[in-house]
Amino acid sequence: MSLPALITPESLAGLSKTLHRATAIVKAPPQLMVSQWADLHRVLSAEASAEPGKWSTARAEYLRGVMDAFSDPDVSTVVLMKAAQVGSTEVINNIIGFHVHQDPASILVVQPNIKMANSWSKTRLSPMLRDTPALRGVIAEPRTKNSSNTIQEKVFEGGMLAVATAGSPADLASRPIRIVLFDEVDKYPPSVKEEGDAIELGTVRTETFWNSKTYKGSTPTVHEISRIEAEWDGSDQRYFMVPCPRKGCRKHQRLIWPQVKWSKDERGNPVDVRYECAYCRGRIEEHERYRMVRKGRWEITRPWVKGIAGFHISALYSPWTTLHKLAIRFVKAVRSKSPEQLRVFINAALGETWKEDTTTVDESGLLARREEYGPLVPARVCAITVGVDVQDDRIEAEVIGWAPGEESWQIEYAVIPGRTETDLRPWQDLDILLSKRYQHELGVTLVVMAAAIDSGGHATTKVYEFCKPREDRRIWAVKGGSKPALPAVGRPNRNNAGNVPLRIIGTDALKRTILSRLKLEGPGPGYMHFPMAADEEYFKQLTAESLIKIREKGEVKFIWKKNRERNEGLDSRVYGYAALIALNPDLERYAAMIQAQSREMKEKIRTPEDLKPQGRGRRVLSRGVGR
Question: What is this structure's pTM?
Fold first, then answer.
Protein backbone atom coordinates (compact mmCIF):
# COMPACT_ATOMS: atom_id res chain seq x y z
CA MET A 1 0.00 0.00 0.00
CA SER A 2 1.51 3.30 -1.06
CA LEU A 3 1.57 6.46 1.06
CA PRO A 4 -0.58 9.44 0.02
CA ALA A 5 1.30 11.91 -2.13
CA LEU A 6 1.55 14.50 0.69
CA ILE A 7 2.96 12.01 3.18
CA THR A 8 6.62 11.08 2.67
CA PRO A 9 9.13 9.19 4.85
CA GLU A 10 10.88 12.53 5.47
CA SER A 11 7.67 14.20 6.66
CA LEU A 12 6.91 11.26 8.96
CA ALA A 13 10.39 11.54 10.45
CA GLY A 14 9.85 15.23 11.01
CA LEU A 15 6.47 14.58 12.63
CA SER A 16 8.01 11.99 14.92
CA LYS A 17 10.70 14.43 16.02
CA THR A 18 8.10 17.12 16.67
CA LEU A 19 5.98 14.73 18.76
CA HIS A 20 9.08 13.68 20.72
CA ARG A 21 9.84 17.30 21.56
CA ALA A 22 6.22 17.97 22.51
CA THR A 23 6.08 15.00 24.86
CA ALA A 24 9.35 16.12 26.43
CA ILE A 25 7.67 19.41 27.31
CA VAL A 26 4.39 18.03 28.66
CA LYS A 27 5.69 14.86 30.27
CA ALA A 28 5.21 14.25 34.00
CA PRO A 29 7.76 15.75 36.38
CA PRO A 30 10.80 13.54 37.04
CA GLN A 31 10.77 11.31 40.09
CA LEU A 32 14.36 12.04 41.09
CA MET A 33 15.42 14.85 43.41
CA VAL A 34 18.40 16.97 42.32
CA SER A 35 20.70 15.34 44.91
CA GLN A 36 19.57 11.86 43.83
CA TRP A 37 20.30 12.68 40.22
CA ALA A 38 23.76 13.95 41.20
CA ASP A 39 24.53 10.79 43.21
CA LEU A 40 23.45 8.60 40.28
CA HIS A 41 24.96 10.48 37.35
CA ARG A 42 27.32 13.34 38.24
CA VAL A 43 31.06 13.03 37.66
CA LEU A 44 33.51 15.65 38.94
CA SER A 45 36.16 16.64 36.41
CA ALA A 46 39.86 16.60 37.21
CA GLU A 47 40.48 20.23 36.19
CA ALA A 48 37.47 21.51 38.14
CA SER A 49 37.73 19.60 41.41
CA ALA A 50 40.31 18.60 43.98
CA GLU A 51 38.39 15.33 44.34
CA PRO A 52 37.61 14.17 40.78
CA GLY A 53 35.39 11.19 40.17
CA LYS A 54 31.86 10.16 41.07
CA TRP A 55 29.87 12.74 42.99
CA SER A 56 28.70 11.93 46.52
CA THR A 57 26.33 14.34 48.27
CA ALA A 58 27.22 12.69 51.59
CA ARG A 59 30.69 14.25 51.28
CA ALA A 60 29.06 17.64 51.99
CA GLU A 61 25.71 16.56 53.42
CA TYR A 62 24.51 20.11 53.98
CA LEU A 63 24.29 20.59 50.18
CA ARG A 64 21.53 17.95 49.94
CA GLY A 65 18.85 20.20 51.41
CA VAL A 66 19.86 23.14 49.19
CA MET A 67 19.67 21.06 46.00
CA ASP A 68 16.48 19.25 46.94
CA ALA A 69 14.69 22.52 47.72
CA PHE A 70 14.86 23.02 43.96
CA SER A 71 12.79 19.84 43.60
CA ASP A 72 10.20 20.96 46.17
CA PRO A 73 7.00 22.13 44.40
CA ASP A 74 6.22 24.42 47.34
CA VAL A 75 9.51 26.33 46.93
CA SER A 76 9.92 28.95 44.22
CA THR A 77 13.12 30.60 45.43
CA VAL A 78 16.24 29.13 47.02
CA VAL A 79 18.62 31.49 48.88
CA LEU A 80 22.10 30.41 49.99
CA MET A 81 24.17 32.74 52.20
CA LYS A 82 27.42 30.91 52.62
CA ALA A 83 31.13 30.89 53.30
CA ALA A 84 33.60 30.55 50.44
CA GLN A 85 34.68 27.10 49.26
CA VAL A 86 31.79 25.09 50.69
CA GLY A 87 30.76 23.50 47.36
CA SER A 88 28.12 26.03 46.33
CA THR A 89 29.23 26.12 42.69
CA GLU A 90 28.43 22.42 42.44
CA VAL A 91 24.88 23.16 43.59
CA ILE A 92 24.43 25.30 40.46
CA ASN A 93 26.13 22.70 38.27
CA ASN A 94 23.97 19.86 39.60
CA ILE A 95 20.76 21.86 39.14
CA ILE A 96 21.76 22.48 35.53
CA GLY A 97 22.72 18.84 34.94
CA PHE A 98 19.44 17.66 36.43
CA HIS A 99 17.35 19.89 34.17
CA VAL A 100 19.36 19.18 31.03
CA HIS A 101 18.96 15.43 31.58
CA GLN A 102 15.68 15.02 33.46
CA ASP A 103 13.53 18.12 33.13
CA PRO A 104 14.47 20.24 30.07
CA ALA A 105 13.86 23.93 30.57
CA SER A 106 15.11 27.36 29.63
CA ILE A 107 17.91 28.20 32.10
CA LEU A 108 19.71 31.47 32.78
CA VAL A 109 22.92 31.66 34.84
CA VAL A 110 23.87 35.20 35.91
CA GLN A 111 27.50 35.87 36.89
CA PRO A 112 28.84 39.20 38.25
CA ASN A 113 30.98 40.02 35.20
CA ILE A 114 32.12 38.67 31.84
CA LYS A 115 35.39 37.30 33.22
CA MET A 116 33.61 35.19 35.82
CA ALA A 117 30.94 34.14 33.31
CA ASN A 118 33.49 32.91 30.78
CA SER A 119 35.58 31.23 33.47
CA TRP A 120 32.60 29.34 34.90
CA SER A 121 31.40 28.26 31.45
CA LYS A 122 34.83 27.06 30.33
CA THR A 123 36.26 25.54 33.51
CA ARG A 124 33.19 24.26 35.35
CA LEU A 125 30.25 23.78 32.99
CA SER A 126 32.00 22.40 29.90
CA PRO A 127 34.00 19.76 31.86
CA MET A 128 30.77 18.61 33.55
CA LEU A 129 29.00 18.23 30.19
CA ARG A 130 32.01 16.33 28.86
CA ASP A 131 32.69 13.98 31.77
CA THR A 132 29.19 13.18 33.05
CA PRO A 133 27.94 10.27 30.88
CA ALA A 134 24.27 11.26 31.21
CA LEU A 135 25.06 14.70 29.77
CA ARG A 136 27.66 13.75 27.17
CA GLY A 137 26.39 14.52 23.68
CA VAL A 138 23.15 16.14 24.87
CA ILE A 139 24.62 19.51 23.91
CA ALA A 140 26.50 19.67 20.61
CA GLU A 141 30.26 20.10 20.74
CA PRO A 142 31.38 23.68 20.01
CA ARG A 143 33.59 22.53 17.16
CA THR A 144 30.79 20.80 15.19
CA LYS A 145 29.35 22.48 12.09
CA ASN A 146 26.38 24.78 12.77
CA SER A 147 26.79 24.12 16.50
CA SER A 148 24.50 26.08 18.82
CA ASN A 149 26.92 25.52 21.69
CA THR A 150 28.92 28.65 22.56
CA ILE A 151 30.48 29.95 25.77
CA GLN A 152 27.41 32.06 26.52
CA GLU A 153 24.60 29.95 25.06
CA LYS A 154 23.97 26.20 24.83
CA VAL A 155 20.89 24.64 23.25
CA PHE A 156 19.63 21.13 23.99
CA GLU A 157 16.46 19.25 23.19
CA GLY A 158 13.56 20.79 25.07
CA GLY A 159 15.55 23.68 26.52
CA MET A 160 18.49 26.06 26.43
CA LEU A 161 21.13 27.48 28.77
CA ALA A 162 22.24 31.11 28.63
CA VAL A 163 25.13 32.60 30.59
CA ALA A 164 24.65 36.30 31.34
CA THR A 165 26.45 39.02 33.25
CA ALA A 166 24.85 41.22 35.90
CA GLY A 167 26.06 44.37 34.15
CA SER A 168 24.35 43.70 30.80
CA PRO A 169 20.70 44.76 30.46
CA ALA A 170 20.45 43.00 27.09
CA ASP A 171 21.41 39.68 28.69
CA LEU A 172 18.79 40.08 31.41
CA ALA A 173 15.81 41.45 29.51
CA SER A 174 15.25 39.17 26.51
CA ARG A 175 13.43 35.78 26.22
CA PRO A 176 11.32 34.18 28.99
CA ILE A 177 13.24 31.88 31.33
CA ARG A 178 11.96 29.17 33.67
CA ILE A 179 15.09 28.59 35.76
CA VAL A 180 17.26 31.54 36.87
CA LEU A 181 20.46 30.98 38.83
CA PHE A 182 22.06 34.11 40.32
CA ASP A 183 25.64 33.43 41.48
CA GLU A 184 27.68 35.64 43.86
CA VAL A 185 25.03 38.36 43.98
CA ASP A 186 27.02 40.54 46.38
CA LYS A 187 29.46 41.19 43.54
CA TYR A 188 26.73 42.54 41.24
CA PRO A 189 26.79 46.25 40.30
CA PRO A 190 24.22 48.47 42.08
CA SER A 191 22.16 48.82 38.89
CA VAL A 192 22.35 47.72 35.27
CA LYS A 193 23.21 50.92 33.42
CA GLU A 194 20.40 52.82 35.14
CA GLU A 195 17.84 50.22 33.97
CA GLY A 196 17.33 48.66 37.38
CA ASP A 197 18.53 45.92 39.68
CA ALA A 198 20.05 42.86 37.97
CA ILE A 199 18.14 40.41 40.18
CA GLU A 200 14.84 42.14 39.46
CA LEU A 201 15.50 42.20 35.72
CA GLY A 202 16.34 38.50 35.70
CA THR A 203 13.45 37.46 37.94
CA VAL A 204 10.87 39.23 35.78
CA ARG A 205 11.71 36.80 32.97
CA THR A 206 10.30 33.88 34.98
CA GLU A 207 6.82 35.31 35.50
CA THR A 208 5.20 33.46 32.57
CA PHE A 209 6.07 30.03 34.07
CA TRP A 210 3.91 28.54 36.80
CA ASN A 211 6.75 26.21 37.79
CA SER A 212 9.63 28.70 37.64
CA LYS A 213 12.54 28.42 40.07
CA THR A 214 15.09 30.99 41.20
CA TYR A 215 18.40 30.46 43.00
CA LYS A 216 20.30 33.29 44.70
CA GLY A 217 23.64 32.50 46.27
CA SER A 218 26.61 34.47 47.54
CA THR A 219 29.24 35.03 50.16
CA PRO A 220 27.98 38.12 52.06
CA THR A 221 29.76 41.46 52.38
CA VAL A 222 28.69 44.50 54.45
CA HIS A 223 25.72 44.52 56.82
CA GLU A 224 22.69 46.37 55.42
CA ILE A 225 24.32 46.61 51.97
CA SER A 226 24.72 42.90 51.26
CA ARG A 227 22.20 41.66 48.67
CA ILE A 228 22.33 38.08 49.90
CA GLU A 229 21.67 39.23 53.46
CA ALA A 230 18.53 41.03 52.26
CA GLU A 231 17.38 37.89 50.43
CA TRP A 232 18.16 35.78 53.50
CA ASP A 233 16.16 38.14 55.71
CA GLY A 234 13.10 37.47 53.56
CA SER A 235 13.46 33.67 53.64
CA ASP A 236 12.41 30.94 56.06
CA GLN A 237 16.02 30.95 57.41
CA ARG A 238 17.21 27.37 57.73
CA TYR A 239 20.26 26.33 59.76
CA PHE A 240 22.08 23.02 59.57
CA MET A 241 21.83 21.33 62.95
CA VAL A 242 24.25 18.54 63.87
CA PRO A 243 24.13 16.08 66.82
CA CYS A 244 26.70 16.07 69.61
CA PRO A 245 28.62 12.75 69.45
CA ARG A 246 28.82 12.46 73.26
CA LYS A 247 26.69 9.76 74.85
CA GLY A 248 24.10 11.26 77.13
CA CYS A 249 23.92 14.43 75.05
CA ARG A 250 23.28 13.89 71.31
CA LYS A 251 21.63 17.32 71.14
CA HIS A 252 21.40 18.97 67.75
CA GLN A 253 23.06 22.36 67.46
CA ARG A 254 24.30 24.88 64.96
CA LEU A 255 28.09 25.05 64.58
CA ILE A 256 29.22 28.54 65.58
CA TRP A 257 32.64 30.14 65.88
CA PRO A 258 32.59 30.96 69.65
CA GLN A 259 32.48 27.21 70.36
CA VAL A 260 35.82 26.62 68.60
CA LYS A 261 38.46 26.42 71.34
CA TRP A 262 42.24 26.09 71.33
CA SER A 263 45.38 26.39 73.42
CA LYS A 264 48.42 28.47 72.48
CA ASP A 265 52.03 27.51 71.94
CA GLU A 266 54.99 29.63 73.06
CA ARG A 267 54.49 31.94 70.06
CA GLY A 268 50.79 32.35 70.67
CA ASN A 269 49.78 30.18 67.72
CA PRO A 270 46.69 27.96 68.10
CA VAL A 271 47.27 24.33 69.04
CA ASP A 272 44.96 21.55 70.21
CA VAL A 273 42.03 23.06 68.30
CA ARG A 274 38.66 21.42 69.00
CA TYR A 275 34.93 22.14 69.08
CA GLU A 276 33.05 22.36 72.36
CA CYS A 277 29.43 21.19 72.55
CA ALA A 278 27.15 24.11 73.43
CA TYR A 279 25.12 21.86 75.78
CA CYS A 280 27.36 19.33 77.54
CA ARG A 281 30.66 21.24 76.99
CA GLY A 282 32.11 17.99 75.70
CA ARG A 283 35.24 18.00 73.58
CA ILE A 284 34.58 17.25 69.90
CA GLU A 285 37.53 16.21 67.74
CA GLU A 286 38.04 16.93 64.05
CA HIS A 287 37.04 13.46 62.84
CA GLU A 288 33.89 13.64 64.98
CA ARG A 289 32.94 16.93 63.33
CA TYR A 290 32.85 15.18 59.93
CA ARG A 291 30.53 12.49 61.28
CA MET A 292 28.30 15.11 62.94
CA VAL A 293 27.84 16.88 59.62
CA ARG A 294 26.91 13.64 57.87
CA LYS A 295 24.14 13.14 60.44
CA GLY A 296 22.92 16.74 60.30
CA ARG A 297 19.58 18.12 59.21
CA TRP A 298 18.19 21.48 58.13
CA GLU A 299 15.80 23.20 60.52
CA ILE A 300 13.45 26.04 59.53
CA THR A 301 13.43 28.92 62.02
CA ARG A 302 10.72 31.03 60.32
CA PRO A 303 8.01 28.56 59.27
CA TRP A 304 5.51 31.33 58.51
CA VAL A 305 7.54 32.32 55.42
CA LYS A 306 6.34 30.24 52.47
CA GLY A 307 7.99 29.59 49.12
CA ILE A 308 11.43 31.07 49.91
CA ALA A 309 13.86 28.51 51.29
CA GLY A 310 16.87 30.22 52.87
CA PHE A 311 20.05 28.34 53.84
CA HIS A 312 23.07 29.56 55.80
CA ILE A 313 26.31 27.60 55.90
CA SER A 314 29.76 28.44 57.29
CA ALA A 315 33.14 26.85 56.75
CA LEU A 316 32.72 25.07 60.09
CA TYR A 317 30.70 22.47 58.17
CA SER A 318 33.09 22.16 55.23
CA PRO A 319 34.96 18.88 54.67
CA TRP A 320 37.62 20.80 52.72
CA THR A 321 39.09 22.64 55.68
CA THR A 322 39.89 21.96 59.33
CA LEU A 323 39.21 23.79 62.56
CA HIS A 324 42.96 24.19 62.97
CA LYS A 325 43.29 25.98 59.63
CA LEU A 326 40.36 28.24 60.48
CA ALA A 327 41.87 29.07 63.88
CA ILE A 328 45.17 30.01 62.22
CA ARG A 329 43.33 32.31 59.78
CA PHE A 330 41.43 33.95 62.63
CA VAL A 331 44.50 34.52 64.81
CA LYS A 332 46.41 35.95 61.84
CA ALA A 333 43.56 38.37 61.12
CA VAL A 334 43.37 39.48 64.76
CA ARG A 335 47.14 39.89 65.04
CA SER A 336 47.22 42.05 61.93
CA LYS A 337 45.03 44.60 63.73
CA SER A 338 43.56 45.05 60.26
CA PRO A 339 39.77 45.33 60.04
CA GLU A 340 40.09 44.37 56.36
CA GLN A 341 41.61 40.99 57.19
CA LEU A 342 39.09 40.34 59.96
CA ARG A 343 36.30 41.25 57.57
CA VAL A 344 37.57 38.66 55.08
CA PHE A 345 37.41 36.03 57.81
CA ILE A 346 33.88 37.03 58.86
CA ASN A 347 32.63 37.04 55.26
CA ALA A 348 34.55 34.17 53.68
CA ALA A 349 34.93 31.75 56.62
CA LEU A 350 31.79 32.37 58.66
CA GLY A 351 29.48 33.44 55.83
CA GLU A 352 28.30 36.43 57.86
CA THR A 353 28.07 40.13 57.06
CA TRP A 354 30.60 42.65 58.31
CA LYS A 355 29.22 45.50 60.42
CA GLU A 356 30.85 48.68 59.20
CA ASP A 357 32.33 50.97 61.84
CA THR A 358 31.12 54.47 61.00
CA THR A 359 32.48 56.17 64.11
CA THR A 360 34.61 59.18 63.32
CA VAL A 361 38.20 59.80 64.38
CA ASP A 362 38.95 62.73 66.69
CA GLU A 363 41.82 64.82 65.34
CA SER A 364 42.75 65.92 68.87
CA GLY A 365 43.43 62.31 69.81
CA LEU A 366 45.77 61.95 66.85
CA LEU A 367 47.52 65.19 67.76
CA ALA A 368 48.17 63.85 71.25
CA ARG A 369 49.80 60.66 70.02
CA ARG A 370 52.52 62.31 67.93
CA GLU A 371 56.00 60.89 68.41
CA GLU A 372 59.57 62.12 68.53
CA TYR A 373 61.45 60.62 65.59
CA GLY A 374 63.76 61.97 62.95
CA PRO A 375 65.66 63.40 61.25
CA LEU A 376 66.68 59.84 60.36
CA VAL A 377 64.12 57.43 58.95
CA PRO A 378 62.92 55.07 61.74
CA ALA A 379 64.71 51.73 61.90
CA ARG A 380 61.72 49.56 60.94
CA VAL A 381 60.97 51.45 57.71
CA CYS A 382 62.01 49.52 54.62
CA ALA A 383 60.18 51.26 51.74
CA ILE A 384 59.10 54.80 50.91
CA THR A 385 56.20 55.98 48.76
CA VAL A 386 54.79 59.44 48.10
CA GLY A 387 51.19 60.55 47.64
CA VAL A 388 50.74 63.78 45.67
CA ASP A 389 47.58 65.93 45.68
CA VAL A 390 47.44 68.64 43.01
CA GLN A 391 45.53 71.89 43.58
CA ASP A 392 45.27 75.03 41.41
CA ASP A 393 47.77 77.03 43.48
CA ARG A 394 49.90 74.36 45.12
CA ILE A 395 51.02 70.75 45.29
CA GLU A 396 50.80 68.85 48.57
CA ALA A 397 52.83 65.68 49.01
CA GLU A 398 53.21 63.20 51.85
CA VAL A 399 56.32 61.04 52.09
CA ILE A 400 55.44 57.78 53.85
CA GLY A 401 57.74 55.11 55.24
CA TRP A 402 56.45 51.54 55.36
CA ALA A 403 57.37 48.54 57.49
CA PRO A 404 56.19 44.90 57.34
CA GLY A 405 52.49 44.64 58.09
CA GLU A 406 52.00 48.05 56.42
CA GLU A 407 52.85 49.89 59.61
CA SER A 408 53.64 53.43 58.47
CA TRP A 409 55.50 56.59 59.47
CA GLN A 410 55.02 60.06 58.02
CA ILE A 411 58.55 61.02 56.98
CA GLU A 412 57.78 64.42 55.49
CA TYR A 413 54.81 66.54 54.45
CA ALA A 414 55.52 69.20 51.82
CA VAL A 415 53.38 72.06 50.52
CA ILE A 416 54.78 73.36 47.23
CA PRO A 417 53.27 76.71 46.13
CA GLY A 418 52.72 77.74 42.52
CA ARG A 419 50.13 77.76 39.72
CA THR A 420 50.15 74.12 38.67
CA GLU A 421 48.66 74.67 35.22
CA THR A 422 50.97 77.48 34.13
CA ASP A 423 54.10 77.58 36.32
CA LEU A 424 57.09 75.30 35.86
CA ARG A 425 58.52 75.88 39.33
CA PRO A 426 56.14 73.70 41.42
CA TRP A 427 56.81 70.73 39.17
CA GLN A 428 60.57 71.28 39.41
CA ASP A 429 60.29 71.36 43.19
CA LEU A 430 58.18 68.20 43.17
CA ASP A 431 60.84 66.45 41.10
CA ILE A 432 63.46 67.49 43.64
CA LEU A 433 61.30 66.06 46.44
CA LEU A 434 60.79 62.75 44.62
CA SER A 435 64.55 62.52 43.95
CA LYS A 436 65.59 62.95 47.59
CA ARG A 437 67.59 60.39 49.50
CA TYR A 438 66.56 59.69 53.08
CA GLN A 439 69.12 58.70 55.70
CA HIS A 440 68.08 55.64 57.70
CA GLU A 441 68.77 54.88 61.37
CA LEU A 442 70.54 51.67 60.36
CA GLY A 443 73.02 53.55 58.18
CA VAL A 444 71.61 52.88 54.72
CA THR A 445 69.98 55.42 52.43
CA LEU A 446 66.44 55.01 51.10
CA VAL A 447 64.95 56.55 47.98
CA VAL A 448 61.34 56.97 46.89
CA MET A 449 60.29 53.64 45.41
CA ALA A 450 56.93 54.77 43.98
CA ALA A 451 54.71 57.84 43.84
CA ALA A 452 51.07 58.36 42.88
CA ILE A 453 49.98 61.77 41.59
CA ASP A 454 46.33 62.79 41.36
CA SER A 455 45.39 63.57 37.75
CA GLY A 456 41.62 63.66 38.17
CA GLY A 457 41.08 67.23 39.26
CA HIS A 458 43.53 70.00 38.53
CA ALA A 459 46.23 70.32 35.87
CA THR A 460 45.57 66.91 34.31
CA THR A 461 47.74 67.63 31.27
CA LYS A 462 50.63 68.81 33.45
CA VAL A 463 50.39 65.65 35.56
CA TYR A 464 50.61 63.52 32.42
CA GLU A 465 53.57 65.54 31.16
CA PHE A 466 55.33 65.16 34.50
CA CYS A 467 54.73 61.41 34.81
CA LYS A 468 55.48 60.41 31.20
CA PRO A 469 59.31 60.74 31.32
CA ARG A 470 59.44 59.34 34.87
CA GLU A 471 57.68 56.02 34.34
CA ASP A 472 60.91 54.11 34.99
CA ARG A 473 61.07 55.79 38.42
CA ARG A 474 57.59 54.45 39.19
CA ILE A 475 56.02 57.88 39.31
CA TRP A 476 52.46 57.19 38.26
CA ALA A 477 49.34 59.16 37.43
CA VAL A 478 46.19 58.05 39.27
CA LYS A 479 42.56 59.02 39.14
CA GLY A 480 40.06 58.44 41.93
CA GLY A 481 36.84 56.52 41.46
CA SER A 482 34.21 56.66 44.20
CA LYS A 483 32.12 53.55 43.41
CA PRO A 484 32.24 51.10 46.34
CA ALA A 485 32.84 48.10 44.07
CA LEU A 486 36.10 49.45 42.64
CA PRO A 487 39.32 47.68 43.65
CA ALA A 488 41.78 49.72 45.71
CA VAL A 489 44.10 50.06 42.71
CA GLY A 490 43.18 49.09 39.17
CA ARG A 491 45.45 47.95 36.38
CA PRO A 492 47.30 50.67 34.43
CA ASN A 493 45.68 51.79 31.19
CA ARG A 494 47.24 54.05 28.56
CA ASN A 495 43.93 55.01 27.00
CA ASN A 496 44.31 58.68 27.91
CA ALA A 497 45.49 61.92 26.34
CA GLY A 498 48.97 61.59 27.82
CA ASN A 499 49.49 57.94 26.86
CA VAL A 500 50.68 57.32 30.43
CA PRO A 501 49.92 54.21 32.53
CA LEU A 502 46.92 55.72 34.37
CA ARG A 503 45.54 53.77 37.34
CA ILE A 504 41.96 54.16 38.56
CA ILE A 505 41.95 53.87 42.34
CA GLY A 506 39.02 52.91 44.54
CA THR A 507 38.96 55.79 46.97
CA ASP A 508 36.16 54.17 48.98
CA ALA A 509 38.24 51.07 49.71
CA LEU A 510 41.39 53.08 50.46
CA LYS A 511 39.61 55.54 52.76
CA ARG A 512 37.93 52.71 54.67
CA THR A 513 41.33 51.17 55.31
CA ILE A 514 42.88 54.45 56.42
CA LEU A 515 39.92 55.28 58.69
CA SER A 516 40.11 51.88 60.36
CA ARG A 517 43.87 52.17 60.85
CA LEU A 518 43.57 55.58 62.47
CA LYS A 519 41.51 53.86 65.17
CA LEU A 520 44.26 51.38 66.07
CA GLU A 521 45.43 51.98 69.61
CA GLY A 522 49.02 50.83 69.52
CA PRO A 523 52.01 50.18 67.23
CA GLY A 524 51.92 47.10 65.04
CA PRO A 525 50.56 46.08 61.63
CA GLY A 526 48.59 48.90 60.03
CA TYR A 527 49.38 51.46 62.74
CA MET A 528 50.08 55.01 61.51
CA HIS A 529 52.88 57.00 63.21
CA PHE A 530 53.08 60.79 63.01
CA PRO A 531 55.96 63.14 63.91
CA MET A 532 55.79 66.15 66.20
CA ALA A 533 55.96 68.35 63.08
CA ALA A 534 52.43 67.29 62.08
CA ASP A 535 50.18 70.18 63.19
CA GLU A 536 46.51 70.48 64.06
CA GLU A 537 45.57 71.61 60.55
CA TYR A 538 47.08 68.44 59.07
CA PHE A 539 45.04 66.18 61.36
CA LYS A 540 41.87 68.14 60.59
CA GLN A 541 42.51 67.47 56.90
CA LEU A 542 43.28 63.80 57.54
CA THR A 543 39.95 63.36 59.35
CA ALA A 544 37.98 65.71 57.09
CA GLU A 545 35.66 62.97 55.79
CA SER A 546 33.35 60.56 57.60
CA LEU A 547 31.67 57.38 56.44
CA ILE A 548 27.95 57.84 57.00
CA LYS A 549 24.90 55.67 56.39
CA ILE A 550 22.03 56.97 54.28
CA ARG A 551 18.86 55.50 52.79
CA GLU A 552 18.31 56.27 49.12
CA LYS A 553 15.33 54.92 47.15
CA GLY A 554 14.72 52.38 49.86
CA GLU A 555 18.32 51.13 49.89
CA VAL A 556 20.93 51.61 52.61
CA LYS A 557 24.20 53.08 51.37
CA PHE A 558 27.45 54.18 52.96
CA ILE A 559 28.92 57.39 51.55
CA TRP A 560 31.82 59.67 52.37
CA LYS A 561 30.81 63.12 53.61
CA LYS A 562 33.15 66.05 54.07
CA ASN A 563 33.20 67.54 57.56
CA ARG A 564 35.23 70.51 56.31
CA GLU A 565 36.34 71.87 52.95
CA ARG A 566 40.06 71.08 53.00
CA ASN A 567 40.99 67.38 52.90
CA GLU A 568 44.40 67.35 51.21
CA GLY A 569 45.93 65.45 54.12
CA LEU A 570 43.53 62.55 53.56
CA ASP A 571 43.90 62.64 49.78
CA SER A 572 47.69 62.60 49.97
CA ARG A 573 47.58 59.58 52.29
CA VAL A 574 45.15 57.83 49.93
CA TYR A 575 47.53 58.35 46.99
CA GLY A 576 50.58 57.31 48.99
CA TYR A 577 48.87 54.09 50.04
CA ALA A 578 47.73 53.49 46.46
CA ALA A 579 51.37 53.80 45.36
CA LEU A 580 52.34 51.10 47.86
CA ILE A 581 49.61 48.75 46.61
CA ALA A 582 50.60 49.33 42.98
CA LEU A 583 54.26 48.74 43.87
CA ASN A 584 53.31 45.53 45.71
CA PRO A 585 56.64 45.22 47.55
CA ASP A 586 57.76 42.29 49.65
CA LEU A 587 58.20 44.35 52.82
CA GLU A 588 59.54 41.42 54.81
CA ARG A 589 62.28 40.86 52.24
CA TYR A 590 63.09 44.57 52.04
CA ALA A 591 63.43 44.73 55.82
CA ALA A 592 65.78 41.73 55.79
CA MET A 593 67.87 43.36 53.04
CA ILE A 594 68.28 46.55 55.04
CA GLN A 595 69.28 44.56 58.12
CA ALA A 596 71.85 42.65 56.06
CA GLN A 597 73.27 45.83 54.50
CA SER A 598 73.52 47.42 57.93
CA ARG A 599 75.41 44.44 59.36
CA GLU A 600 77.73 44.41 56.35
CA MET A 601 78.55 48.09 56.82
CA LYS A 602 79.26 47.58 60.53
CA GLU A 603 81.57 44.65 59.80
CA LYS A 604 83.56 46.66 57.26
CA ILE A 605 84.02 49.69 59.49
CA ARG A 606 85.69 47.57 62.19
CA THR A 607 88.96 47.20 60.24
CA PRO A 608 91.65 49.99 60.42
CA GLU A 609 91.60 50.24 56.63
CA ASP A 610 87.89 51.00 56.64
CA LEU A 611 88.35 53.67 59.30
CA LYS A 612 90.31 55.75 56.78
CA PRO A 613 88.32 58.32 54.75
CA GLN A 614 87.15 56.69 51.52
CA GLY A 615 84.99 59.43 50.06
CA ARG A 616 82.04 57.08 49.89
CA GLY A 617 78.44 57.85 50.73
CA ARG A 618 76.08 55.56 52.58
CA ARG A 619 74.52 52.53 50.94
CA VAL A 620 71.40 53.05 48.86
CA LEU A 621 68.57 50.53 48.71
CA SER A 622 68.34 49.96 44.97
CA ARG A 623 65.27 51.16 43.12
CA GLY A 624 65.47 47.96 41.13
CA VAL A 625 64.68 45.75 44.13
CA GLY A 626 61.54 43.75 43.58
CA ARG A 627 61.47 44.12 39.82
Answer: 0.75
